[in-house]
Write a structure and sequence with these properties.
mainly beta; four-stranded antiparallel sheet; 1 helix; 10 strands
């Protein structure tokens, strides 16, 4: 039922910035918790950030000083602002939706995940 689409990925040089967007929940956006995860090749998915409809948030310690999660309720979109990007940030980035527990632990069903957008940090 929940169809999520990520956009904004691409190639960026080390130290650069990217802003990713996630859209798709529609009218359910105002009640769902939304989050961001990433997966590097050959590695498990890693939690990045999550935010409730009221602005309560959690950002992973590994990216807390560089990434910002933004929720635009009128536009029904979720954003991830990534700054000071490093080569080790190269990954496919996914958004997901659901309860706080399922979003932050990665246990949301497959229909509550987007298909991902690739981010490559390289010169």
């Amino acid at each position: 039922q929940v169809k999520l689409v990520e956009s904004g990925g691409g190639l960026v040089q080390p130290g650069g910035s990217l802003r990713l967007a996630c859209a798709g929940p529609g009218v359910a956006f105002r009640t769902l918790v939304m989050g961001w995860w990433r997966q590097a090749p050959g590695k498990p998915r890693e939690f990045l950030a999550a935010m409730t409809s009221n602005g309560e948030e959690e950002i992973a310690d590994s990216v807390k000083d560089r990434f910002v999660i933004i929720r635009d309720n009128p536009e029904m979109k979720l954003y991830l602002q990534m700054n000071a990007l490093k080569p080790e940030d190269t990954a496919v980035i996914y958004c997901n939706a659901g309860t706080w527990s399922r979003v932050t632990t990665g246990t949301a069903p497959s229909r509550h995940w987007g298909q991902g957008t690739g981010v490559t940090v390289s010169r």
